[in-house]
Amino acid sequence: MSVETMKAVQVYEDGGPEVLIYEDVPRPVAGPGEVLVRVYAAGVNPADWRARAGFPDVPEQFRHAIPPIARPHIPGFDLSGIVETVGPDVTTFDTGDAVFGMIRFPAGGKAYAEYATAPVTDLALKPTSIDHIQAAAVPMAALTAWQFLYQDLEPGQTILINGAAGGVGHFAVQLAKIKGAYVIAAASGRHEAFLHELGIDEYIDYTTTPVEQALRNVDLIYDTVGGMNADSLLSVLKHGGRLIAINIGNYSAERATRLGITIGTGRPSLHPDAAQLAKIGRLIDAARLHVAIDTVVPLSQVRQAHIRGESGHLRGKIVLRVVE
Fold first, then answer.
1. Which of 92, 135, 177, 297 has a CA that sits 20 to 30 A from residue 250's CA?
2. pTM, whole model, 2 decimals?
3. What is the distance between the alpha carbons of residues 40 and 323, in angstroms, rounded to a whole number?
4. Same domain, yes or no, for 278 and 305?
5. C-alpha separations of 35 from 91, 97, 128, 260, 321 in Å
6. How do residues 118-162 score in pLDDT, each as one tens digit?
7. CATH number assigned to the domain comprising residue 197
């Protein structure tokens, strides 16, 4: 019996964008608790290009926490599409339902393909007010902002969002405003108008004014940038403040202790959550949460998407168009 095939992206070895291979692979079959999704669009996240490269930026002491990734492997965690078939015992979705989700994070994925199986616990109905391109941009970035910011933020708190225009950052800005926070955004100058449209209260162009020179006594920092100079942000916080780091950064635990600052979320790692994703979808349909798209690239030109992502300074998300 012949095996049905599909187009997908595979990675056979660690490396740069050149190791992303667009080719024919067997089409997967939905198992118990899963649906087969005809993928219309797949979101591109920093986790994708970092995994492709073998996580070279992760310090040795943290590498044990990285789940093993089989090779060859189809990358990608975010998708939006239509349910093609349902697996045994599935009653959550029906054939023809439009769905979106972050699937099998952190070790599974396989969204860079024409078809992908997905646990029903990782999916929600796609918001009706946006298309598949926009929907594929939502799951990982919005869940990161929801799980590590929105759930614990208190109305009236002052928050600095560093890297506010990016994929996670632009959702964090909006969710913080929905929660009633006073939001200060740090980004490069070309994003100022965009961030004011999202509702920020103050703006800092970090290319002309170092953030640590512009602010003091902030309750919370949500740092989506990290990097070698991240420690300088600690002086912005008030005593008893908290810094939530989304990317790896050089933060001094000793200095934080001296300043009475907590670094971390106090929560488990990022994880799929269909109920949270459904709430995010309702905010989108209510026009309270908007999705920004930086670049749309056909699946066959996935290397361009990773090159764009690794260049930085994004406004919103990069998305792979799977169905033209």
1. 177
2. 0.94
3. 5
4. yes
5. 10, 10, 20, 48, 21
6. 999 999 999 999 999 999 999 999 999 999 999 989 999 999 999
7. 3.40.50.720
